[in-house]
């Protein structure tokens, strides 16, 4: 072996362990986490439990040792019923660094729903934390798998290693169009995502991240994985509540993520203040101009970011803190967009018609599900304006065709939810003998006792959209049908035979 071959072999060995390459940066997510927590400072805090960075890595090593005893196929995803906790973090880190990548599943789904997902995996073992043992038993019986309940994890000085193309974890899509689909997250691409998101959110070892999204969701483990790679102190809540937000405030968290509806809840309760919060990341829906102004009043120095993406790859685009400051200063139209391409992202609109609307395709090193040319085909429809801002118009499968005209539900919903009398809204198509389909709106009023007049909503919508996009029927409802991840399930929107209000 000559000198050049020896150097190449050494670099390959470093990459396999996830240790720094020629630029000094680990090339794997496991390498980033292992490097970030090799210290005695607090790294994880849940209730009265605090682990240092070294303790977190040692517990992760113990998790890897335990996973080794289960007879798992090396490298294959392991379905797991786990929720945000110190043990869950150790399991994910340990699984990624021992060749047993975890695939967390939604613990709020039914046993039958979970079993269908488990049956689609090759694993013969299902993991469950003790609090989900009963649910795990039901799922195991339905799926024909063997249940292993997570024990108290011991400490181990085991070195956690992984190659760049090994799996770090597997998340599943939300399943709004059918069975949730697995999204494999390789070590290299998860590390790239951690660097992009960490930079955008200004996460570093002095940060304290705390969120409340479900652990199996890209907004849950996906964001926690970024915080872990940055070496931040991490905590979390099993679900969002006003009381839980008060706990995050009391702990002194500096970073969090949520959907705008959560922010509205906090503002309505007068509990949005958070003196130590530096960055608030949101997604899933636009934020209203009035909500943004009140957020800045409650947290004057907070950095607001809207990141658009999906389980298969995110962020695709970002509405930056500077964009939000411009919006509150008068450019409110920016809030209807999802910003401009995130760092390192190339975006194109495929199959655009005369209106510039087409399917959003994006390419970047931090996307997980891509085609042979590296493109993520998002399934989302949108257009890019001359200033580079991307505007979403909904899923291609959601499109309503009314008399030959295309109506994108998200565009109508964005306009509707900007009305102060509307707390939430969903738009769908209903069969129509003359037009093929017509537009119907389901509205959750801000005040259930005094819903807005349909004529008022019609005028509000018509002033901002073409006439063919305006709903012809309006139904006032208590809530909208959502899946376990909080997304509206449009196929379950049905016009009632009686009750409700329409015009």
What does this structure look like?
- It is built from 14 helices and 24 strands.
- It is of the alpha/beta class.
- It folds into three domains: 18-239, Rossmann fold (3-Layer(aba) Sandwich), CATH 3.40.50; 256-395, Rossmann fold; 399-492, ANL, C-terminal domain (GMP Synthetase, Chain A, domain 3, 2-Layer Sandwich), CATH 3.30.300.
- The strands form eight sheets. A five-stranded mixed beta sheet has the order 11-12-13-14-15.
- α6 (133-143) links the parallel β5 and β6.
Question: Could you list some keywords that capture this structure?
Answer:
3 domains, alpha/beta, Rossmann fold, GMP Synthetase, Chain A, domain 3, four-stranded parallel sheet, 503 residues
CATH homology superfamily of the largest domain:
ANL, N-terminal domain
Output the radius of gyration: 24 Å
Our count of helices gives: 14
Mean pLDDT: 90
Which bin fits the share of residues in helices?
25-40%
Q: What is the strand arrangement across the widest sheet?
A: 11-12-13-14-15
Terminus-to-terminus distance: 81 Å
Structural class determined from secondary elements? alpha/beta
């Amino acid at each position: 072996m000559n000198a050049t071959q020896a150097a190449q072999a050494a670099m390959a060995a470093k990459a396999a362990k996830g240790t720094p390459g020629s630029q000094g940066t680990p090339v794997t997510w496991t390498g980033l986490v292992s490097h970030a927590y090799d210290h005695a400072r607090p790294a994880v805090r849940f209730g009265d439990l605090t682990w240092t960075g070294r303790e977190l890595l040692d517990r992760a090593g113990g998790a890897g040792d335990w996973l080794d005893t289960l007879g798992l196929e090396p490298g294959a995803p392991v379905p797991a019923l786990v929720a945000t906790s110190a043990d869950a973090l150790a399991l994910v880190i340990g699984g990624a660094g021992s060749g047993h990548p975890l695939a967390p599943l939604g613990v709020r789904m039914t046993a039958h729903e979970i079993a269908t997902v488990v049956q689609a995996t090759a694993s013969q073992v299902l993991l469950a934390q003790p609090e989900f043992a009963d649910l795990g038993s039901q799922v195991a019986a339905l799926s024909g798998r063997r249940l292993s309940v997570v024990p108290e994890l011991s400490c181990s000085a085991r070195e956690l290693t992984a190659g760049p193309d090994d799996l770090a974890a597997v998340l599943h899509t939300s399943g709004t169009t059918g069975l949730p689909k697995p999204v494999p997250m390789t070590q290299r691409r998860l590390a790239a995502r951690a660097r992009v998101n960490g930079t955008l959110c200004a996460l570093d070892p002095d940060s304290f991240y705390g969120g409340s999204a479900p652990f199996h969701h890209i907004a849950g483990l996906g964001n926690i994985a970024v915080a872990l790679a940055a070496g931040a102190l991490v905590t979390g809540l099993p679900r969002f509540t006003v009381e839980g937000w008060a706990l995050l405030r009391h702990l002194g968290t500096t970073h969090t993520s949520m959907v705008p509806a959560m922010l509205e809840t906090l503002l309505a309760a007068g509990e949005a203040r958070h003196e130590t919060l530096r960055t608030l990341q949101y997604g899933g829906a636009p934020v209203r101009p009035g909500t943004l102004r009140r957020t800045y009043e409650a947290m004057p120095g907070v950095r607001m970011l809207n990141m658009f993406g999906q389980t298969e790859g995110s962020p695709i685009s970002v509405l930056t803190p500077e964009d939000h400051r411009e919006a509150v200063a008068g450019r409110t139209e920016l809030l209807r967009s999802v910003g401009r391409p995130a760092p390192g992202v190339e975006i194109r609109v495929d199959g655009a018609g005369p209106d510039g609307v087409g399917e959003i395709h994006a390419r970047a090193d931090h996307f997980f599900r891509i085609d042979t040319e590296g493109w993520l085909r998002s399934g989302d429809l949108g257009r890019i304006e001359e200033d580079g801002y991307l505007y979403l118009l909904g899923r291609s499968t959601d499109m309503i065709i009314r008399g030959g005209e295309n109506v994108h539900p998200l565009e109508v919903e964005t306009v509707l939810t900007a009305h102060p009398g509307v707390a939430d809204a969903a738009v769908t198509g209903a069969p129509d003998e003359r037009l093929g389909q017509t537009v119907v709106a389901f509205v959750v009023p801000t005040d259930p006792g005094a819903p807005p007049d349909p004529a008022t909503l019609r005028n509000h919508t018509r002033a901002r959209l073409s006439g063919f996009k305006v709903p012809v029927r309006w139904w006032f409802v208590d809530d909208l049908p959502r899946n376990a991840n909080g997304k509206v399930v449009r196929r379950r929107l049905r016009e009632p035979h009686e009750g409700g209000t329409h015009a």
